[in-house]
Amino acid sequence: MKYLLAPLLIALLTGCPTTDVVEVKPGWQKQPIKIVGCKPVVEYSGRSFSSKGVDIPVPQLGGSVKVGEFTYKPETLNTLYRNVAILDALRLQYCGDRVAAAQISQAAFNACNERVMDQEAKIAALAISATQGEAAVEEAVHKYGTSSPEAPAPKDASTKNVDAIAASGLQEKANGNAPMMAGAAPGAAPAASSTTTLPPQVAAIVRQVPKETLLKMARRPAPSPASKAH
C-alpha cells in the first residue's frame, strides 16, 4: 500500500497537531499503538479560509475576489471554498476513524491513514491553485471537487469498508451525531472523530452533499509528488 505505515510506530501524521493521544491495543499485534488525534488543516474565519499558507477570501461570506495578483469570479472562489471544506471534513473523519479501525484490523488502520494523507494532498492542491489564476482553480476543482469524474471503488475490502464508514459517519456528524465505527471491539473507546465537531459552516456544506459524492471525492487520486512540485 502506497502509504503503509509500520504498525509498531506511533501513528503521527503531518498536519494533525494536538495533544490528544489514544492508546489502542489491537488484536493483530502485541504492542499497543498510540494514535495522535487530528485537527483540520484548514483555518476558517468570517470571510475567508486559509491552508498551506494561502489565505483565500470567500465572496459569499463577504470576502473579496482577489488572491494576490489575481482577480476571480465570485463563484470560482465560492466553489473552491465549498470543495476544500468537504475534503477537510473527510480528512478529519478518516483521521478520527483510525482509533476504531485499529481495533478491527491492520489493513483498516492503514487504509484510514492512507485516506487521511490523500485528502490532505488534495486540499493543498486546491489551496495552491488559488495562487495560479482562474484556469488553475477550475482545473483543480474539476480533478478533486464535487463535479470531478467518478472514481472506481477500491478492490481492497478494507479500504472499501473504511470509505463507506467514513462517508456515513461524516453525514451523521454533520447532522449532530457521531456513531462508532462498525466492527470496533465491544467496550472500546469511541473514535477520536466522535469528540471533534465540525466547524458550523463546514457542517452546513456537508449536509448538502450526497453520500455518493463524498465517496467519489474521497476516492479521487491524490496529486502525484511531481504534480505537487510543479
Features:
230 residues; 7 helices; mainly alpha; two-stranded antiparallel sheet; elongated; three-stranded antiparallel β-sheet; 46% helix
Characterization of the model:
This protein has 230 residues and is mainly alpha-helical. The chain has one domain (39-229). It is 46% helix and 10% strand. Residues 1-18 and 182-195 have low confidence and may be disordered.
The gist of it:
By secondary structure, the chain is mostly helical. Helix content is 46%, strand content 10%. It has one domain (39-229).
How would the blueprint of this fold be written?
Blueprint: E1 21-24, E2 33-36, E3 43-44, E4 48-51, E5 54-57, E6 66-67, E7 70-71, H1 74-104, H2 106-129, H3 134-144, H4 157-174, H5 200-206, H6 211-219, H7 225-229
Antiparallel strand pairs: 1-2, 3-4, 4-5, 6-7
Structural class: mainly alpha
Helix content: 40-55%
Largest sheet report: 3 strands, antiparallel
| Shape annotation | elongated
Order of helices and strands: EEEEEEEHHHHHHH
